[in-house]
């Protein structure tokens, strides 16, 4: 529940919001699809579980932590792939990754036949599931290839909202999406703060400095530097609206990950001795390529 206070002696105005972060992966998928259109594929009752986790004494989850749902968004056919962070930190294993890759591949086939399907991926993951190692890495590569193939026909929209964030190989998958929707609470980076501290030491990055972490890789910073496209409050309806706007904008002439020379030129101007979150906003935020529309920041979240 959000409260806003008017000037004078007027009573406060209460605005009810549905937190997107607090929803499960299945609830997130249901909320993104038009009411009454949710239909889950390979759900818990299909018992498609990891064959590798029991061998290591780990209890499986019946959907392996990935929810695949068909329905419509804005009246158009859509598929939502949502990762459940409550199971193994949202890590991607052979089964969960294959479900996502196959869903995107089927969407691509439909698009090739003239039936456009709107794809959404809800990321909340630390990356590959270490217990499945190379199998997880291989399937993440399949997800990335599927995104690149599909985005030629229709925008592939990614959502990063939850507190786990999006890291590892799945951060590369998120970067390949046509457009990214983030909340302030969301984080996006190749390596997580704990991993950086562990490998490079606390002098490099203090993983307990939460304010610093969000300044570096939080949703507000990523949108301000043009590496994500929509910054919204933790409000399910606002996220749905941003996803709809992402599809309405259509497929760009050049995707962000194709503008290699543009970003190499920006990186050449970065001074490692003076780099800071503010300087990155100045450099990347004011030097946007004309090929990209400006990042959208909801007025309510400013």
Please give a structural write-up.
- The chain is α/β, with parallel strands linked by helices and 302 residues long.
- The protein has 2 domains: 240 residues, 2-enoyl-CoA Hydratase, Chain A, domain 1 (Alpha-Beta Complex); 33 residues, no CATH class.
- 35% of the residues lie in helices and 15% in strands.
- It has 10 helices and 10 strands.
- It has an 8-stranded mixed beta sheet with strand order 3-4-5-6-7-8-9-10, sandwiched between helices. A two-stranded antiparallel ribbon has the order 1-2.
- The longest helix has 19 residues.
- The protein is globular.
- The N terminus and C terminus are likely disordered.
List the defining traits of the structure above.
2-enoyl-CoA Hydratase, Chain A, domain 1, globular, two-stranded antiparallel ribbon
* Low-pLDDT runs: 1-8, 287-302
Order of helices and strands: EEHEEEHEHEHEHHHEHHHE
Indicate the mean pLDDT. 89
Name of the CATH first level of the largest domain: Alpha Beta
- Number of E strands: 10
Number of domains: 2
Tell me the fraction of residues in β-strands, as a range.
5-15%
* Largest sheet entry: 8 strands, mixed
């Amino acid at each position: 529940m959000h409260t806003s206070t008017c000037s004078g002696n007027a009573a406060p105005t209460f605005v009810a919001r549905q937190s997107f972060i607090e929803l499960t992966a299945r609830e997130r998928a249901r909320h993104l699809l038009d009411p009454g259109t949710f239909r889950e594929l390979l759900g818990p009752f299909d018992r498609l579980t990891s064959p590798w986790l029991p061998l290591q004494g780990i209890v499986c989850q019946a959907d392996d932590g990935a929810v695949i749902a068909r329905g419509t968004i804005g009246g158009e056919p859509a598929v939502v792939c949502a990762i459940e962070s409550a199971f193994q930190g949202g890590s991607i294993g052979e089964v969960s990754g294959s479900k996502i890759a196959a869903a995107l591949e089927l969407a691509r086939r439909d698009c090739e036949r003239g039936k456009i399907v709107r794809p959404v991926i809800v990321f909340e993951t630390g990356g590959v599931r270490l217990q499945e190692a190379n199998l997880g890495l291989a399937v993440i590569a399949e997800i990335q290839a599927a995104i690149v193939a599909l985005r030629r026909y229709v925008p592939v929209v990614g959502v990063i909202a939850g507190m786990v964030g999006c890291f590892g190989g799945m951060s590369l998958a998120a970067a390949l999406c046509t457009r990214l929707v983030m909340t302030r609470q969301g984080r996006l980076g190749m390596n997580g703060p704990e991993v950086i501290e562990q490998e490079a030491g606390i002098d490099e990055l203090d993983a307990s400095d939460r304010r610093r972490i969000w300044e570096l890789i939080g949703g507000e910073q990523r949108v301000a530097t043009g590496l994500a496209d929509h910054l919204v409050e933790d409000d399910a309806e606002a996220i749905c609206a941003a996803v709809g706007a992402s599809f309405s904008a259509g497929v760009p002439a050049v995707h962000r990950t194709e503008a290699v020379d543009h970003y190499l030129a920006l990186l050449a101007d970065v001074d490692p001795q003076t780099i800071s979150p503010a300087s990155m906003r100045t450099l990347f935020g004011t030097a946007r390529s004309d090929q990209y529309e400006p990042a959208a920041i909801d007025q309510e979240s400013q």
